[in-house]
Amino acid sequence: MTKKVKTKTILAACLFILVLTGCRFIWFYHYNSSDHPEAEQGILDLRNWDGLERETISLDGEWKDLVTVTSGQEALIHLNRRNGI
Q: Which of these, 12, 28, 48, 51, could form a disulfide with 55 (CB 3.0-4.6 Å)?
């Protein structure tokens, strides 16, 4: 391979990587929604949030691992007991 062809190949590869990186940043900023509620003490309260029908949320925040809980009903019982309900 000649030096000119090798240089063009490297430039094309660099341009391709830059385009892919640019697309990734555009995707990230377009779909990143920071105006959603976060979990606090392992509870994500969505009762007063109206974005459920049009947005997805990331599960950022503080979570508690409930290894012994196996169903949604058991989780509710555990949380109610913890909160004194």
A: 51
The conformation of residue 43, written as its DSSP 8-state character, comes to: B
Q: Number of structural domains, the chain?
A: 1
Question: 10-21: per-residue pLDDT in tens?
Answer: 999 999 999 999
Furthest CA-CA distance within the chain: 77
Only one residue has tokens 């830059």, namely 18
Enter the pTM of the model.
0.43
CA pair distance 82, 38, nearest whole angstrom: 19
Residues in the chain: 85
Backbone φ, ψ for residue 22 (5° rounding) = -60, -40
